[in-house]
Amino acid sequence: MVKRVNLRDDECPVARALDVIGDWWSLLIIRDALDGVRRFNEFQTGLGIAKGMLATRLRDLTERGILESAPASDGSAYREYVLTEKGRGLFLVIVALRQWGEDHLFGPNQPMSSLVETKTGAPVARLGLLAQNGQRLEWTDTKVTKAED
């Protein structure tokens, strides 16, 4: 079995982010939490993930500060998993993945879920990267500057 590489101290923010959320189960758990899923059995049923795998991912996301465990909102003895501010900050990442999937992974007549505004039901606008002056940027308009030692 291949040992997982630790990227916690990498100088690249993308590498550090992937160290925390870089597997599909974690991203799908975060997606579902953004949609209001809070309980272990709801995650397990909705995702079809093995209980042991889910327990491991929930524990890791909690230890990394993406989720927090809280008493059930209905007063029962159950615990719920709630997104922290850090976890809610992944909303744009999930939307970007969604929009990329919409653009590249569906045929013309294939049904797919939609992301719409709660108040109006209108589809959300496409994400885009903007310069400080508001001008839209493409990947060729940017570069990464390496960290200095």
Task: Write up what this structure looks like.
- The protein has 149 residues and is mostly helical.
- Helices cover 40% and strands 9% of the residues.
- The chain has six helices and four strands, in the order H-H-H-H-E-E-H-H-E-E.
- It has helices spanning 13-21, 24-34, 40-47, 51-63, 85-88, 91-104; strands spanning 67-71, 79-83, 129-130, 136-137.
- The strands form two sheets. It has a two-stranded antiparallel sheet.
- The longest helix is centred in the middle third of the chain and has 14 residues, at 91-104.
- The model has no long low-confidence stretch (mean pLDDT 93).
- GO terms for molecular function: DNA binding.
- This is Transcriptional regulator.
- Residues 12-109 form the HTH hxlR-type domain.
- It comes from Devosia epidermidihirudinis.
**Proportion in helices:** 25-40%
Using the 3D structure, state the CATH architecture: Orthogonal Bundle
Radius of gyration: 18 Å
Task: Quickly count the helices.
Answer: 6
Keywords: DNA-binding, Transcription, Transcription regulation
Domain HTH hxlR-type: 12-109
Organism: Devosia epidermidihirudinis
GO molecular function, one term: DNA binding
Provide a concise account of the structure shown.
This protein has helices spanning 13-21, 24-34, 40-47, 51-63, 85-88, 91-104, and strands at 67-71, 79-83, 129-130, 136-137. It has 149 residues and is mainly alpha-helical. It starts with 12 loop residues before the first helix and ends in a 12-residue tail after the last strand.
